[in-house]
Amino acid sequence: MPRSRRVFLTVTALDLLACNLLAALSLSRGIWLLNLPATVTVGRLASIFGGDPAGLVVTMVGGAAIYGWAGARLDRELFARPGAAGPTVRPPSPS
Fold first, then answer.
1. CA distances from 92 to 57, 73, 78, 80, 95 (A)
2. Of 5, 59, 78, 92, which residue is least crowded by CB atoms under 10 Å?
């Protein structure tokens, strides 16, 4: 399995674990805040059409996917092998 896929799955699982822990502690507001990018997009739409419980579930899944994608992208950009496909982070050239 490629490294970026492992990073995606790890970050996604950690976010879902944190959300489930917050839900077990009856801290649903923490879930809304933890996954704020998903809350203001897909979570809001789901809560309009399906109520707050549906919005919360969609927020948890959407937030985990967003953070997983961002983690995998950051991993690819920071730890790419020289000569591999994709962008790499290079130190600034002296002027």
1. 43, 21, 14, 17, 9
2. 92
Please provide the size of the chain in residues: 95
Q: Name the phi and psi angles at 57, rounded to 5.
A: -65, -45
Q: What tens digit of pLDDT does each residue of 1-26 get?
A: 778 888 899 999 999 999 899 889 98
Tally of CB atoms within 10 A around 8: 21
SS (H, E, C) the chain: CCHHHHHHHHHHHHHHHHHHHHHHCCCHHHHHHHCHHHHHHHHHHHHHHHHHHHHHHHHHHHHHHHHHHHHHHHHHHHCCCCCCCCCCCCCCCCC
pLDDT digits 0-9 by tens, 46-65: 989 999 889 888 889 999 99
Output the six-digit token pair for 4. Answer: 């970026």
